[in-house]
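subagent[fold] <- orchestrator: predict structure for attached chain, return tokens only, no commentary.
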Amino acid sequence: MHDFPVCIQTKSSLVLRDLDLIKKFTNIEVGVTLTTLDDSVRAKMEPGASTVEERLHTRSELSKNGIKTWIFLGPVMPILLMLRR
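subagent[fold] -> orchestrator:
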């Protein structure tokens, strides 16, 4: 396997299935996208996608395993404020 820089950005907790493969790279980072912190809003915008809790757990597990992680918060949409009403 070639050891080249890898950057993964995901909304899915399924990335944890490949943790053993991810850990083989020395220069890797994984970003987790959050579109909202309100899971009822997330369910309307992204039905079938990983929950907010699952995404935060994913980021935590990757970090615990020595993987550089980050959160992408977006897209920022004014409609989110109206959905909460």
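orchestrator: received. Logging for downstream: The beta strands are 6-10, 28-34, 68-73. The first strand starts at residue 6 and ends at 10.
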